């Protein structure tokens, strides 16, 4: 049902998010746990950045679903215990576009913005990221925030191909990526928000 007779529900996007996240959890529980931690980090950085309540809401939904496109990644790539070869990496790099397609299929207010954030969360500040090679301020603000906290958690937690790193070790790596992978201003704000959480 569409149009004026369609029932409204201010929580509809979050309800869709919970459903999709449950599906992702069935496919790959590790990705679900990562997404849960990213939500917490992203909200803290969003508050540090002075985002509005609506922006924080969209950031929270996008953070929860930023890896939803991994549902469409074949098992031999998604579940691989080691690093990827060149072909496998090209497949894995499709997950932001897959995620965008999934989210754009949800015809609820705000989901178009969420889909855009998800599409661009692997762009880099210097323009060398994917899928579109956007740079600097052309990368949506909420995607730039998500990029930092996604990177932080990916390094802080153990993976089959690396050990968990300490907070200090992760921050040292992020510092080397300033103005290359990450927005310098947002990274400074993340230093403050992360320090508050220690």
Automatic annotation (TrEMBL):
HD-GYP domain boundaries: 9-198
Please give the InterPro entries that the UniProt record associates with this protein: HD/PDEase_dom, HD_GYP_dom
Recorded hits in Gene3D superfamilies, A to Z, give: Hypothetical protein af1432
Any coiled-coil regions, as ranges: none
TM region(s), chain numbering: none
Q: Which GO terms describe its molecular function?
A: phosphoric diester hydrolase activity
Q: Which SUPFAM superfamilies match?
A: HD-domain/PDEase-like (SSF109604)
Q: Name one Pfam family in it.
A: HD_5
CDD domains in UniProt: HDc
Listed name of the protein: HD-GYP domain-containing protein
* Protein source organism: Azospira restricta
């Amino acid at each position: 049902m569409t149009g004026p007779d369609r029932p409204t529900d201010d929580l509809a996007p979050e309800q869709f998010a919970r459903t999709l996240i449950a599906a992702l959890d069935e496919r790959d529980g590790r990705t679900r746990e990562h997404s849960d931690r990213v939500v917490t980090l992203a909200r803290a950085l969003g508050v540090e950045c002075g985002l509005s309540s609506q922006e924080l809401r969209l950031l929270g939904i996008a953070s929860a679903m930023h890896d939803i496109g991994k549902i469409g990644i074949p098992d031999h790539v998604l579940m691989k215990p080691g690093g990827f070869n060149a072909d496998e990496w090209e497949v894995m790099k499709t997950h932001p576009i897959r995620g965008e397609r999934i989210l754009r299929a949800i015809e609820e207010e705000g989901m178009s913005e969420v889909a855009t954030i998800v599409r661009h969360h692997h762009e880099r500040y210097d323009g060398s990221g994917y899928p579109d090679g956007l740079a600097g301020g052309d990368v949506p603000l909420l995607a730039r925030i998500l990029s930092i906290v996604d990177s932080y958690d990916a390094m802080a937690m153990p993976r089959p191909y690396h050990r968990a790193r300490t907070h200090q070790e992760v921050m040292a790596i992020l510092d080397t990526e300033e103005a290359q992978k990450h927005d310098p201003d947002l990274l400074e704000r993340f230093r403050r928000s992360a320090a508050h959480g220690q």
